[in-house]
Amino acid sequence: MIVGHGIDLQEIEPIRKAYEKNPRFARRILTEKEFMVFSSLKGKRQIEFLAGRWSAKEAFSKACGTGIGKLSFQDLEVLNNDKGAPCFTKSPFSGRTFISISHSGNLVQASVILEEVHDC
């Protein structure tokens, strides 16, 4: 049964500016494993990655109904699976989590669905 759906739309430029103003911004948003991926990227792709993880974590918190504040960015981790698709590898939710991240121009959008799984 679906228990939550969250969507976040974020302009990439403010994320870029926040990172350029204070590079520690990335460490506040990203877990250690996410930061390793971020560090391996360059230029536009690096900032898109950071903005995508920001948006994904915001969408997750909206799906939970709490928003960021009750959850921290460090409570959530989004890495890619063996097919390259993003997936939550760390979260406080015990059910199934579905995520989609899309980039277009100066925008990134993330959608998260939370599903409780019940055995019949």
Automatic annotation (TrEMBL):
What are the alphabetically sorted keywords of the record? Cytoplasm, Fatty acid biosynthesis, Fatty acid metabolism, Lipid biosynthesis, Lipid metabolism, Magnesium, Metal-binding, Transferase
Upper lineage is:
Bacteria, Bacillati, Bacillota, Bacilli, Lactobacillales
For Mg(2+), which residues are the binding ones? D8, E58
Q: Where in the cell is it found?
A: Cytoplasm
Q: Which reaction does it catalyse?
A: apo-[ACP] + CoA = holo-[ACP] + adenosine 3',5'-bisphosphate + H(+)
As cofactor, the record names: Mg(2+)
The entry's function note states: Transfers the 4'-phosphopantetheine moiety from coenzyme A to a Ser of acyl-carrier-protein.
Name assigned to this protein: Holo-[acyl-carrier-protein] synthase
Q: Which gene encodes it?
A: acpS
Which residues, by range, are in coiled-coil regions? none
Concerning its family, UniProt says: Belongs to the P-Pant transferase superfamily. AcpS family.
